Amino acid sequence: MIEIRDLHCYYGAIEALRGINMKIEDGAITCLIGSNGAGKTSTLKSISNVVCRTGGIIYDGVDLSHLRDIQIARQGVIHVPEGRGVFPGLTVEENLLTGTVNWHGLFGKGRYDQDLAEVYELFPRLQERRNQLAWSLSGGEQQMLAIGRGLMGRPKVMMLDEPSMGLAPLVVAELFEKIVEINRERGITILLVEQNAKLALKVSNYAYVLEQGCILLEGPAEELRYDPRVVSAYMGTGAH
Amino acid sequence: MNFNLFVSLLVNGLAMGMVYALLAMGLIMLFRSAGVMNFAQGMMLAVGAYISYATQVQADLPLYAAIPLCLASYVVFGLIFMACIYLPLKDTKFPAAIVVATMGTSSILSEACTLIWGGEALSVPYLVTNGEGKSAYLTIGGVSIQWQYILTTIVGVVLIFLVYVLFDKLYVGKMMEAAAQDKYTASLIGIPKLVTIAITYAIAISLGCIGGFMVSPVTYCSVSLSSLQLRAFASVVIGGTRSIKGAVIGALLVGLVEAFATVNLSNYKDAVVFILLIVFLLVKPDGLVRSKIGDKA
């Protein structure tokens, strides 16, 4: 379980998070929804320690708040960034291999055949394109690659930042099936940041609604899905 | 031009091309992974040459002891260079600050070398000598070639091959490449950025120093070796600023053009090199080898 206590995040003089408290349960999908600039991405960046932040982040009794970014990845907390962040000049397979660095180090020789086979089983499309350079993939394939690369790091917790961004609805539906599969079948805890609140609440167990750096609402996703405040603010009209 | 002259110019050009290639590869590695255009890269030739002088002449060590000692010093020097340039300025908001720092370092190194070893050009022994301490020649079918040029070419080929193996075959090279392409994501997935950058500095600086080690018996050892930096810049522009392969091709082209220009235009060989550069800037400003990352429509 990740427990976040009184988390603040700053970009210079701007305070992007104003003291949020969250609990991310093991084995569940927790989602974080909210409008643009609410602080969703800042929350993930704070957990990964790539922004200036204060507050407590306790993961399985380990205080993450004093660890550096790569040490946090080594704890099994893997952040799949917004905009995918695939390495454009490496092939699909090389991109996947980079994901293993957090458990076997820069010079170690890990046995990743099994991990690779599992990722290819989950995303057969990546296997078809294994020798293609990553920049030439479609947006959906790049997102699969980013998630696959995260899985290669043997995560215990995966933080996905806007996996649906810029993708066609059919591709998004396929991707979300895979995300649920990763959670159910491998027991990987997922913290999902999404603008697409309707979809996020459908697959999640628990949800937080962020607004202007504060948590506005929280509760089981089943309940928030029908909460009139959430429906009117984040789902447009007529959504159920 | 007779055949003998042609062969000796060819070998001379290839050897100098390899030296430029070593410099240019270092330039590109630093540029890609740390975003630093290193204006002190040419000075590495001089540093490499002076360290070679110190071990081979001043300490009078035999080659089998001098070579490993030089290589170790080059790597350590690369790491010190990184500690002085990269670490204090890595979070700067002014990218030009690092460029200026490399220029300043170049001057400091130049003055330091002059203080320690004096301003006169020093002679460094050839790797293969005849009885009188002059360079030995290899004679095949009536054509004589200096061993130093042959060895320089061989060392260049081997180092280019090793750099290729590092980036194309080794896991750590892929991690360095990944960190060079996207530093932010690299740190999120757990690539130790500082280590990959330190390796890059150690290799890039060592390549320049090894170039100095090989070239100094021919050119003498002096701080003016750093002027060859301009040849390396020309190679990088001709080859394409982000491709190591391109830089090697560009460097060999510069070396060969320069060698053949000495036949009739020896006073103008600098001019010939830079005319080549200007032609490339006009006709093919992207360089010979385009980046393999394309633009998606």
From TrEMBL, chain A:
It comes from the Bacteria. GO terms for biological process: L-amino acid transport. Residues 2-237 form the ABC transporter domain. CDD domains: ABC_TM1139_LivF_branched. Keywords: Amino-acid transport, ATP-binding, Nucleotide-binding, Transport. PROSITE patterns: ABC_TRANSPORTER_1, ABC_TRANSPORTER_2. GO terms for molecular function: ATP binding; ATP hydrolysis activity; branched-chain amino acid transmembrane transporter activity. Pfam families: ABC_tran. Belongs to the ABC transporter superfamily. PANTHER family: HIGH-AFFINITY BRANCHED-CHAIN AMINO ACID TRANSPORT ATP-BINDING PROTEIN LIVF. This is ABC transporter ATP-binding protein. It comes from Anaerofilum hominis.
UniProtKB/TrEMBL annotation, chain B:
The chain crosses the membrane at residues 6-28, 35-53, 65-89, 96-117, 147-167, 188-207, 246-265, 271-289. GO terms for molecular function: transmembrane transporter activity. Its main location: membrane. It holds the Pfam family BPD_transp_2. Keywords: Amino-acid transport, Cell membrane, Membrane, Transmembrane, Transmembrane helix, Transport. One of its GO terms (cellular component) is plasma membrane. It is a multi-pass membrane protein. InterPro entries: ABC_transp_permease, BCAA_transport_permease. GO terms for biological process: amino acid transport. It comes from the Bacteria. It is found in: Cell membrane. Belongs to the binding-protein-dependent transport system permease family. LivHM subfamily. This is Branched-chain amino acid ABC transporter permease. It comes from Anaerofilum hominis. The lineage of its organism: Bacteria, Bacillati, Bacillota, Clostridia, Eubacteriales.
